[in-house]
Design goal:
Helix 3 packs antiparallel against helix 4. The longest helix has 19 residues. The protein starts with 10 loop residues before the first helix and ends in a 22-residue tail after the last helix. It is mainly alpha-helical.
Length: about 270
């Protein structure tokens, strides 16, 4: 059965329903990883194709499980559990000219970095403290200390900060936008309780130090107005800008056409502001 034939109540929809019944992110990831191991490359491709199209249509069920799909693919790549399968899926995506599926599988270096801890400088006074002391202070409630510790290059300190109930969304937006920064910090931000916040995801995508595979996964969540900004941001990885451009054109009905600024002026749909 083709991916198109599964749009209405078929296997991908059933799998998504099963995953949504699982509350824990780790459990969703594990179930998906096991599912991928049992599927053929063609079946994996069809599932990813279905998900990419449903996400583009803002299907809330598909969006809800997309993080688990990304995590399962990432773990499968890291552990070499799915190397041959995903290599064939990538070839299928290229043969079908299916950029959305290809970007799910792509693991490119960030536009800038990655950086070691020694290349990222934290607060001068805080840097005189031991790692253990900074980790302890990151669990506290002193706003001045917390703001200074947000510049710390050590992931253990950042992890404690992200778990601190006194940290605000605006703090994390600033952390995600920080330059230079470390790739491990960007991954921790996405994995934290703030990772589902739109402003945080936009800050991650807009940062050239964010790992490219992470940005390519998050760009699909962006609204049209922000896709327009990302596609023209020359500091970002070309793959990230290309994916933002592809999604922007799909949302504005420009797929396969030239840029509106390059020819006669076209009337565009109103920008979505939500």
């Amino acid at each position: 059965m083709t991916a198109a034939g599964k749009d209405n109540g078929g296997e991908p929809a059933a799998l998504v329903k099963r995953l949504r019944a699982l509350a824990e992110r780790d459990m969703r990831r594990q179930v998906l990883l096991e599912q991928f191991l049992e599927m053929s490359p063609q079946q994996v491709f069809e599932l990813l194709d279905w998900l990419s199209r449903q996400v583009a249509c803002r299907n809330p069920a598909a969006i809800d499980v997309l993080d688990a799909v990304h995590q399962a693919l990432h773990v499968g790549q890291q552990r070499d559990l799915l190397y041959e399968t995903l290599a064939e899926v990538y070839l299928l995506a290229r043969q079908e000219d299916h950029q959305a599926v290809a970007t799910m599988l792509l693991n490119a270096a960030p536009q800038r970095g990655p950086l070691a801890a020694s290349q990222v400088h934290g607060d001068a006074d805080m840097s005189r403290l031991t790692l253990g002391e900074r980790k302890f202070l990151a669990r506290g409630h002193d706003r001045n200390r917390l703001e200074r510790l947000l510049r710390d290059p050590e992931p253990d300190v950042i992890r404690n900060l992200l778990r601190n109930p006194h940290l605000t969304e605006q703090d994390v937006v600033g952390l995600a936008a920080r330059r230079p920064t470390r790739d491990v910090v960007q991954r921790q931000i996405l994995a934290s309780r703030f990772g589902n916040r739109y402003s945080v995801r936009l800050a991650l995508v807009s940062n050239p130090y964010t790992p490219t595979d992470l940005s390519l996964k998050l760009v699909g969540f962006l609204l049209r107005r922000d896709l327009k900004l990302v596609r023209s941001n020359q500091s970002l990885h070309p793959l990230v800008r290309a994916e933002a451009d592809r999604l922007y054109r799909a949302k504005t009905g420009l797929a396969g056409k030239g840029d509106p600024g390059a020819g006669p002026r076209q009337q565009s749909p109103p920008e979505d502001g939500e």
